[in-house]
Each structure stands twice: as structure tokens, then as C-alpha cells.
Specification:
CATH superfamily: NADP-dependent oxidoreductase domain
Shape: globular
Structural class: alpha/beta
Oligomer: single chain
Order of helices and strands: EEEHEHEHEHEHHEHHEHHHEHHH
Distance between the termini: 42 Å
Largest sheet: 8 strands, parallel, barrel
CATH topology: TIM Barrel
Strand content: 15-25%
Number of domains: 1
CATH class: Alpha Beta
Number of helices: 14
Radius of gyration: 19 Å
Number of strands: 10
């Protein structure tokens, strides 16, 4: 297993992590015995990183039960939801997460989403919100309730509102959707900002919710609302995604890797990506994903994938687009600049 340190911290995590959103019960069913098997396989194979959130339904509680006696084997990350970031509110949320996870500290405590008026919120982030986040996380860190803090889904336009010193000791990561078919954060200079300030990416949806496994070549298979609300699963983008995946599959076949393995390997080949968070509902998928690191991607293949994916991003997607925009009707996508 490959291990990386997250940002300016001593948190050493496996390059592949268990993304626990699927075991919350909100996006389909899960088998607790399968989850237990995945945790055991993780320990056997050196995977030491788990990411969850209070917004993932039962996820924290399920993990709390399964991790009894195994807490010391994992770096645990979770997230606070909501729109208020003052110390009192954040500590109340954290206390709930600690109770559900049956632990007395969180290794990485993250702000799940910035407030964005154009998305789900009534207002955008204010100057006070940034001050509150910094103040709350500093205090919780000093109290020993969290080791470090992170943010999630934050763009450069958000991050630049923090005082720079916060990145040297408290905020060490930015959890973002990042994959071969989603590189918006590269285009809008968020990646450059994070590299400059030593804020590492935790890449969620590195398999683009299953698209980069080759599973969804027929849109009739898409059941979960979370996928129906994903730009990549809707026209006029979806058919372009399938054509792109065909190109990547040919490359994967030529070097003896599966589509998912090449996608994960490409993702963690980036020195600013500390770990790829892969949703794992079935142990068989977990075992295949771990094998991503059995073979290193050649530099020329990485460069080819870089170019293909950037070309796709620039040609078919618009800058500052979010992966989920709720209603993905064709006419609505066209309004924001996504056209055939």
C-alpha cells in the first residue's frame, strides 16, 4: 500500500480510503456483514483511512459499531453539515459525531459544504463564516477533540478568504470530486491554490459514481437520485462521457489494468492528492480497487490521460460547475452553457 501525509500534518493515510457514504442507507441498501468484511480486508491490506459525515444517514453509527476494538487501526474523517460555523454550534455537531462513532476524538473534522446561494443555500459565505470556521477548529484542536481540520467542496474563491496561517497548522485538506472526467478544480485554479498552500486533496468520486468502472453504459440502470442529479449522467454530457470511457478502456486493456484501477491509479499519482475516497458497498469491489497499486502507471500513460481528461473538461463542461445541480433537465444545462 502507498501512504501519504495530508498537508502540513503528521496524518499518514493510505492512498485509497473507504468512502462510507453508501452505508448510510440514504442511497440504496447495504449489507452490514459486507461492511464488516470490508473493514477486516482494509486492515489486512493496510488501508487505514475512513471518511464519513453526519449527513450520511446511519453511516457514523454503523461505523461506530463495527470499529469497536479497531479504532486505533484507522484515521477517521467526518464532516459537519449545516450553515452555522460558530464554536458552540460546531462543538454540538462534533459531540454528536463522537457519540455515534464511539470515539473521543476525530482525526480530521471537515466542513461539508461552503454556503453557495446558487446551489442549495439562502446566502453565500460571509467574512464571519470564515472567521468562525478558523476559530472553531482552532479551539477544538486545542481541546484535543480533533487532530486537524479540513474543508470539502471549497473552491479557490472560498479558500482565499481564510487567513493563510490557518493552512500551516489547522486546515490541511480539501475534499473535492476529482477524477478523469471531473477536473473543474484544475480549470478554476483551486488546485494551484491548494498546492501553493500545502492543502491536499481528498479525492471523492474518483470513479465518477461508477461511470469509470464501465457499469453505466445503459442509462436505464441509473436508479439512485444522487446519480440522476449528477451532470455526468445527463444529456448532452452523458453520451460524451461514454465515448471518453471507451478511449480510457482501450488504454487500460493495453497495459493490463481494469478501467477502475487505471482511474484510481491516475488520481493518486498526483502529489496533491493524499487519498482517493472510493465508495465500497461490496467487498469484491474493494479487493479489486486495492489492486490498483499492484502496477504503477507509466509516466507517458499519465501524460496521455492528463491531456485526454483536460480536453474533455474544456470541451464539454463549463468552468465553476458543480457535480450536482439538482434538476439536470437538458434545457437547464443549456442555460448554464452545456450544449451539444
Amino acid at each position: 500500500m502507498i501512504y501519504k501525509k495530508i498537508g502540513n500534518s503528521d496524518l499518514k493515510v493510505s492512498a485509497i480510503a473507504i468512502g462510507a457514504w453508501q452505508i448510510g442507507g440514504q442511497w440504496g441498501s447495504y449489507d452490514k456483514k459486507e461492511v464488516e468484511k470490508i473493514i477486516d480486508l482494509a486492515i489486512e491490506n493496510g488501508v487505514n483511512f475512513i471518511d464519513t459525515a453526519e449527513g450520511y444517514g446511519e453511516s457514523e453509527s454503523v461505523l461506530g459499531e463495527i470499529l469497536k476494538g479497531k479504532r486505533d487501526k484507522f484515521v477517521i474523517a467526518t464532516k459537519i453539515g449545516g450553515n452555522h460555523f460558530d464554536y458552540k454550534t460546531v462543538k454540538e455537531h462534533l459531540t454528536g459525531s463522537l457519540k455515534r462513532l464511539k470515539t473521543d476524538y476525530i482525526d480530521l473534522y471537515q466542513i461539508h459544504w461552503p454556503k453557495m446561494k446558487h446551489l442549495w443555500h439562502k446566502e453565500d459565505m460571509s467574512e464571519k463564516d470564515y472567521e468562525d470556521i478558523a476559530d472553531s477548529m482552532k479551539k477544538l484542536q486545542k481541546e484535543g477533540l480533533i487532530r486537524f481540520a479540513g474543508v470539502s467542496n471549497f473552491r479557490k474563491k472560498h479558500l482565499q478568504n481564510f487567513k493563510k496561517e490557518i493552512f500551516s497548522s489547522v486546515i490541511i485538506s480539501n475534499q473535492v470530486p476529482y477524477s478523469l472526467i471531473w477536473r473543474c478544480y484544475d480549470i478554476d485554479e483551486t488546485t494551484d491554490f491548494c498546492i501553493e498552500n500545502k492543502v491536499d486533496y481528498l479525492a471523492y468520486s474518483p470513479l465518477a459514481e461508477g461511470l469509470l468502472t464501465g457499469r453505466f453504459k445503459d442509462r436505464s440502470e441509473i436508479i439512485e437520485n444522487i446519480r440522476k442529479n449528477n451532470v455526468l449522467f445527463n444529456e448532452p454530457v452523458y453520451s460524451k462521457v461514454l465515448n471518453f470511457i471507451d478511449e480510457i478502456e482501450k488504454i487500460a486493456k493495453d497495459i493490463g489494468m481494469s478501467l477502475s484501477q487505471i482511474a484510481i491509479n491516475w488520481c493518486v499519482s498526483k502529489n496533491y492528492v493524499a487519498s482517493a475516497l472510493v465508495g465500497m458497498r461490496k467487498s469484491i469491489h474493494f479487493e479489486e480497487n486495492i489492486k490498483s497499486f499492484n502496477k504503477k502507471l507509466p509516466e507517458d500513460i499519465i501524460k496521455t490521460l492528463d491531456q485526454l481528461s483536460l480536453d474533455f473538461q474544456k470541451r464539454y463542461l463549463v468552468e465553476r460547475l458543480e457535480l450536482w445541480i439538482g434538476n439536470c433537465l437538458k434545457e437547464d444545462l443549456e442555460k448554464i452553457g452545456i450544449k451539444n
